[in-house]
Amino acid sequence: MLSSPLIVLILFLTIGTSVCYEKSYANHQVWRLHITNNEQIAKISAFSHIAHLHDINFWSEHFRIDEPVDVRVPPAAVDSFAEFLTSDGVKIEYVVHMGDVGAIIENQKIVQNLTRLLSNTNDFAYDKYHTLEEIQAWIDQMVSTYSELATLFTVGKSYENRDIIGFKISSKKMATKLDGTKTAMKKAVWWDGGIHAREWISPATVIYIAYTFLSKYGQDPTITHLVDQFDFYILPVFNVDGYVYTWTKDRLWRKTRSKTSVPTCFGADPNRNWDYHWCENGASHDPCSDTFCGGKAFSEIEVSQVAKYIADQQGAIVHYINFHSYSQLWMSPWGWTAARPAQYKLQDDGSVVAINALAALYGTKYGHGSIAEIIYVSSGSSADWTYGTANVTFSYGVELRDTGEYGFLLPENQIIPTGQETLAGLIALVQYIEKHVYA
């Protein structure tokens, strides 16, 4: 048994070889703004478009009366932002929600390093966050271990020449229609995580769910039935370059890592870059903004390649989810407009089925509705493209835990509960979808 001083010494000697960030968030705070009227909404909305000029980052992107707005504020902007919130005769009340973001990141980093140091097994830990290298090794392991069910697929290469890989789960059995007849036209499901790099709970949840489907096939009758009925395309990490960057340079990085027209600003928002009502509303043309839509639709190679891969399935995919954090929301199209699509009730009823099953496990409450109505207008999103162009009827964007207590820094002890409740929601949703696509 190692002594405590020795553990600490070894830990700090090994920090540089595992989780280590170049960008410091020491003494950065997260303020929670209290919005009570439309004048305040207008004021904060206008400021959000230039907030990045002050290194102020809105963790909440939807501004509604009586809903909290979380904003990261660096030490240099504390006084000026506080003054702004009381200016122009429109006062916005706030509380300091997180006193030191950097300390939270550093504490989590220490726990992660200590766990890795003291681990006595090479097994993949489903209650831990993992690097891209570890996740891709896990994919290889799943394909090898469950070779009768899982096959590797490669979407393509990222901007920085990393492989974008996932795997397909398929029992190779024919699907059964509701009338009992067999059909060779098996429908498919696509679930992806990590489109926004800093949202680590997203890949972790997709990984947990995919492993459960593989390991429980042949044991759990419900999962066995669904795997026999559908093919499942699993892409744990969409934005591979951005995800690596969050592990090595900047824990709170969101975008891709492509070069832009501004030499000091990198990447585009991969969930504003899809070629469906691209950059009309709820996105920015400013390369330095976190919601930069890119120089053109599908400018980001990761986005264009995922879209092509989905399109190449020639209509087999009937269900798509792009997992995010945070806010606990189950959302359907549209994002680009508050107008509802013709199949909105069919889609939203599926959301209700999912969140009811999810809540039954731990009581976690999710909201539901269209993207534009429940969170914000955002054009060029994945769910809008998969529904509007690829004709994937049951397209969703899901915001996982939590509602802001930890935000993008959700502790590892919430990975398994998040995975378990999300799995319950997904099983119920896919059962709902089955009744409609195999009628």
UniProtKB/TrEMBL annotation:
The active site is at E399. Residues 1-20 form the signal peptide. InterPro entries: M14A-like_propep, M14A_act_pep, Peptidase_M14. The keyword Secreted applies. GO terms for cellular component: extracellular space. Residues 128-433 form the Peptidase M14 domain. It is found in: Secreted. One of its GO terms (molecular function) is zinc ion binding. It comes from the Eukaryota. Keywords: Carboxypeptidase, Disulfide bond, Hydrolase, Metal-binding, Metalloprotease, Protease, Secreted, Signal, Virulence, Zinc, Zymogen. SMART domains: Zn_pept. Its cofactor is Zn(2+). GO terms for biological process: proteolysis. It holds the Pfam family Propep_M14. The keyword Ribonucleoprotein does not apply. Extracellular metalloprotease that contributes to pathogenicity. Involved in the digestion of the blood meal. Belongs to the peptidase M14 family. This is Peptidase M14 domain-containing protein.
